[in-house]
Amino acid sequence: MVIKIIHGQNIFLIELSLEDFGNELTNYAKLSEKYALKSEKTDLEKYVKDIFYEIYKNCISGKTDYRNVRRFIAVEYKSMEQVGGIDLKESSFLDSLDHNPHTELGYGMSKNYEGLGYATEMVGILCKYLKKESVNIYAETEKYNNASIRVLEKNNFSRIYSGETYWWKLTD
């Protein structure tokens, strides 16, 4: 796999191979060394790590095609630390909603880097990059997650569904 790096103003995104994705979860020191990161461990919250580990196991076993699951880490230029991550995945909810090529975007930030605008930048540079792929981009938020709602609104997402959670679609 050719390493894809997407540059922003304060951060850059690295698209992880399946092996790198596994290392992010189980051997972060190896991932850190490969990309010359300053951080020696990931600070993914346990529930997020558990979700990713399940996705990773499904990819390894062949239940899920990793080409349909893409994981990026966000790295701050100044510190060379991982400040967050963003992923793209299939969604059965979206399959019934959109018959065109589509993906669900999810993201999270390291606690030390919340509130600095990096989530907004991370989502923005990935969405700009994905426009070349002619894919509709969606996101889901909890109703009470005001920070995430602001990130999506700043990046031209419009709320398209309100149920137990909110669903959003990137508009042009």
CATH class: Alpha Beta
Structural shape: globular
Q: What integer is the average pLDDT?
A: 90
**Radius of gyration, in angstroms, nearest whole number:** 15 Å
User: What would CATH call the architecture?
Assistant: 3-Layer(aba) Sandwich
Give the biggest sheet.
Answer: 8 strands, mixed
Share of residues in strands: 25-35%
Helix content: 25-40%
The overall strand count is 8
The overall number of domains is 1
Task: Briefly characterize the structure.
The chain is 35% helix and 30% strand. It has helices at 18-26, 28-34, 46-61, 92-97, 118-130, 146-154; strands at residues 5-7, 11-16, 70-76, 82-89, 102-109, 136-142, 157-162, 165-170.
In terms of topology, how is this protein built?
Layout: E1 5-7, E2 11-16, H1 18-26, H2 28-34, H3 46-61, E3 70-76, E4 82-89, H4 92-97, E5 102-109, H5 118-130, E6 136-142, H6 146-154, E7 157-162, E8 165-170
Parallel strand pairs: 5-6
Antiparallel strand pairs: 1-2, 2-3, 3-4, 4-5, 6-8, 7-8
Helix pairs in contact: 1-2, 1-3
